[in-house]
Amino acid sequence: MKKFLLTAIVGVLVPLYCSAQENILSLRECIEWGIENNLSIKGAGQDVVKAGIGKSESRSRLLPVIQGFGNFTNNVHPGTMVTDGSGLGELFGLDLPYMPSKSLRYATTGGLQLSMPLYDQTVYTGISIAKKVEEISGYSYGKAKEDLTVEISKLYYMGQSTAEQIRLVHDNIRRLEELKNITKAFHDNGMVLNVDVSRVSINLENLQIQLNNLNAMYEQQLNMLRYVIDLSPETEFDLAPIREDISGGEHLLAGVSPDLYELKLLDAQEELIQKQGKIINQGYIPSLSLVGQLSYSNFTDEFKNYFHSHQSNRWYNTTYWGLSLKVPIFDGFAKRNMARKNNTDYHKLRFAHEDAKNKLDMQYRNSLNEWQVNSRNLQKQVDNYRLAEEVYAVTTDRYKEGVASMTELLQDELRMNEAQINYTTALYNYMSTELGLLKLTGQLDLLTR
């Protein structure tokens, strides 16, 4: 019987425990889910796909282009050509006058045309530019994922901080409820005044209001996190307990990473502008193409001749192939002006690159200093928070013994609340500055390990 009851209890409690565990999303899970499902990231991924298609499109310019054509012309007023008849006169030894000849009314032409570049330096450079554009799209996608990781982490840390405040307020409410019961007992025995009971009730009510506000804030933060990681509104989840370990941090002293996507983007954009300038100058180089055509033409004076046998219903073949050479001679200084503009854009980007490096160095120094300050502040706030709880516990015992007054106890309770708020604020500030340093040092992947 005992074995049966034990099995039944385990069968009930284990699913409940597993359900509670499954309800908690870690920071790593939120980041991975967000990168996979966030709509903005999906849009950035389509830009990468588009850039790859653009590279294939540039390569296709090296392939032959074959197109069919067909023309039908109804010359309502056929044109007239006039010759001097010299050819026939010489043939027959006659002096012939000018001879007019009238074209037929209907003309039909159809066939195939071929063109393929044999040498065009701009095509080869265009392929190189398309590859660089694809590379830039990849960097943009990587930067979008980094930005999303930072956004998710900040929301997660904010939610953790609020959840920690909720936990502390719950503990405070529990203490005050115990204190209220003790004070009521003292009042019933005539040891304290009714105003002391009212003071405890007021503080308890204030804590309950604070708890309600924190619960509403926590739900809003979870809703924001749901939106960012594209989780359905019906999905219920909680966050893992906040991390209190602040040991270590040597990995944050590595300095600004040279592999930041911001710097990679600027490097790639510089190379892209250089290639664009190169393709402008290559516009002065001649290009050579293979061309060819196969066509058939038909001429008749009556439309009905298309539908039955007639002496004019004949098709004439024209076939040719050859080489087409294009030599740029003068373009009104268009290429020269384009080259000047490209050179201006290049120098402008160089200045932006240098400014970005200096700005990142400044951000790193400031973030490192802020992180060190927050680390010290957090340690002090942890000590203050724990000391305030110890002082409150001692004052509570003294109050139970009738040594401390209600006023003294409530003052210590207020100081403990302030210490708790300062502690959770310092903890969030520390984690937020640590997150900024992880991004600047190129170590955001530590969040998903």
List the helices and strands and how they pair.
Layout: H1 2-22, E1 24-25, H2 27-37, H3 39-59, E2 65-74, E3 80-83, H4 86-92, E4 99-102, E5 106-119, H5 121-188, H6 194-228, E6 238-239, H7 261-281, E7 287-300, E8 315-326, H8 334-400, H9 406-440
Parallel strand pairs: 1-6
Antiparallel strand pairs: 2-5, 3-4, 5-7, 7-8
Helix pairs in contact: 2-5, 3-5, 5-6, 5-7, 5-9, 7-8, 8-9
What does this protein look like?
The protein has 449 residues and is an alpha+beta fold. It has two domains: 25-63 and 120-285 and 328-448, Outer membrane efflux proteins (OEP), CATH 1.20.1600; 71-119 and 291-327, no CATH class. Helix content is 64%, strand content 14%. The chain contains nine helices and eight strands. It has helices spanning 2-22, 27-37, 39-59, 86-92, 121-188, 194-228, 261-281, 334-400, 406-440; strands spanning 24-25, 65-74, 80-83, 99-102, 106-119, 238-239, 287-300, 315-326. The chain has a four-stranded antiparallel beta sheet with strand order 2-5-7-8, with no helix packed on it. It has a two-stranded parallel ribbon with strand order 1-6. α3 (39-59) runs antiparallel to α5 (121-188) and α5 packs antiparallel against α6 (194-228). The longest helix has 68 residues, at 121-188. The chain is elongated, with a radius of gyration of 42 Å. The chain starts with a helix and ends in a 9-residue tail after the last helix. Mean pLDDT is 87; it is low at 1-21.
